[in-house]
Amino acid sequence: MTSFSGKTAWPTGTECVAKYNFQGTMEQDLPFSKGDVLTIIGVTKDPNWYKAKNTLGREGTIPANYVQKREGVKSGGKLSLMPWFHGKITRDQAERLLYPPETGLFLVRESTNYPGDYTLCVSCEGKVEHYRIIYHNGKLSIDEEEYFENLMQLVEHYTKDADGLCTRLIKPKLMEGTVAAQDEFSRSGWALNMKELKLIQTIGKGEFGDVILGDYRGTKVAVKCIKHDATAQAFIAEASVMTQLRHNNLVQLLGVIVEDRGSLFIVTEFMAKGSLVDYLRSRGRTVLGGECLLKFSLDVCEAMEYLEVNNFVHRDLAARNVLVSEDNIAKVSDFGLTKEASSTQDTAKLPVKWTSPEALREKLCFYCFLPSDIPSPTLLLEIYYQQGLPLKEVVPRVEKGYKMDAPDGCPAVVYDLMKQCWTLDPAVRPSFRMLREKLQHIRAKELYL
Ligand code: ADP
Ligand code: MG
């Protein structure tokens, strides 16, 4: 790494987001607009200038102080949409937290006197005022005139206007150990500008929100909209995991928009051909042919190998969570359950341990096909399986050690791999890397024919 007067230069491959427009004055300059994503491709003699490439592949020099380095959001677990929410604390504790006095400093706690209600505590001219927030018919109110869907909307309202309180809300008292999600996404270069996002039409219904086709600065994007505050909180973790991942076979995060009102928009690349399940179903496996099915298996396997190598566990791998791009590349999506394996534990062994059906069967998530990333038996099966028992009934049997017959039309070499993946003993089960190597071999030698 090159170092300039103590400051470490950004290495090649670093991603930056433009903070301002740059028109460029010299011929070698690369002009850009605020919000553009640029990738560093080298240093120049001047530490304030870098060689960079834009998303269209155009190269040139850029001024470092016009751009912001983009980083992975690491503190996923601590990110909060409501960092001012302190849960069940007493009136005294709240007053201590709001000390020293600072007019407009506030927090929200659960009411001790009225279970189910909340209390808004605001510091005002040396005194702390406690306002009861009543919960009535699914809505929240302080004055019983103005009602709100959730605490975020309420806080947003009183941030703009005191509206009867002793002061408007100015500064949140952050709960210890939390980071305001919005600030963190901005700081790390992942916050997008709502004004530049056009929502065009709904293209999917997810468990927790709609997926909408959008246009972000001239590019088609998919936008996952999460309107419910508690769910949004869960998806913050998903988005923060996605900031750390970059692979051609993972659906790429483009950015996040956190709205004051508690809505969350997760913007990703648009996958024109939809989910792999629908793709396989609507076109038919025999029509698609062996090469295509093998290519999809390989695509997914490469993504999973990348996660495996980087100590991430997906835990919800299934064909419905794989999307197909315009140019027929399969990419894994839905990182809602993805976890970074803790670095404090034995990382060399962890992925295997974490992903074993034995370890996770108990924690089976309600919409998981399989609780973990067992090297892709279900997925291979899903890609090749055509008829007979519904897959939902097949999978539990496979988990118990039952090895089903080869799906119709499944090449023997692929079926062999499937069987290896079904091995319940994790020591014998192939890793995604081995699986990928074998699939590549099958492809290169055209053994799928
Ligand atoms: P859930 O996991 O809650 O079901 P998904 O994120 O899988 O929600 O999205 C639901 C559907 O929306 C998908 O099956 C797919 O058809 C569509 N979809 C999701 N993300 C994209 C995307 N990036 N591009 C195109 N379509 C998408
Ligand atoms: Mg899904």
UniProtKB/TrEMBL annotation:
CDD domains listed in its UniProt record: SH2_csk_like, SH3_CSK
Top EC class, one word: transferase
GO molecular function, one term: non-membrane spanning protein tyrosine kinase activity
Main location: cytoplasm
Family matches, as Pfam families: PK_Tyr_Ser-Thr, SH2, SH3_1
SH2 domain sequence ranges: 84-173
Domain of life of the source: Eukaryota
Matches recorded under InterPro entries: Csk-like_SH2, Kinase-like_dom_sf, Non-receptor_tyrosine_kinases, Prot_kinase_dom, Protein_kinase_ATP_BS, Ser-Thr/Tyr_kinase_cat_dom, SH2, SH2_dom_sf
Documented EC number(s): 2.7.10.2
PROSITE patterns, alphabetized: PROTEIN_KINASE_ATP, PROTEIN_KINASE_DOM, PROTEIN_KINASE_TYR, SH2, SH3
GO cellular component terms, A-Z: cytoplasm
Protein kinase domain: residues covered: 197-444
Entry keywords, A to Z: ATP-binding, Cytoplasm, Kinase, Lipoprotein, Myristate, Nucleotide-binding, SH2 domain, SH3 domain, Transferase, Tyrosine-protein kinase
Substrates-to-products reaction catalysed: L-tyrosyl-[protein] + ATP = O-phospho-L-tyrosyl-[protein] + ADP + H(+)
Positions of ATP binding: K224
Record keyword Repeat present: no
Domain SH3: 11-72
Localisation: Cytoplasm
Similarity comment: family membership: Belongs to the protein kinase superfamily. Tyr protein kinase family.
UniProt-recorded name of the protein: Tyrosine-protein kinase
Originating organism: Pygocentrus nattereri
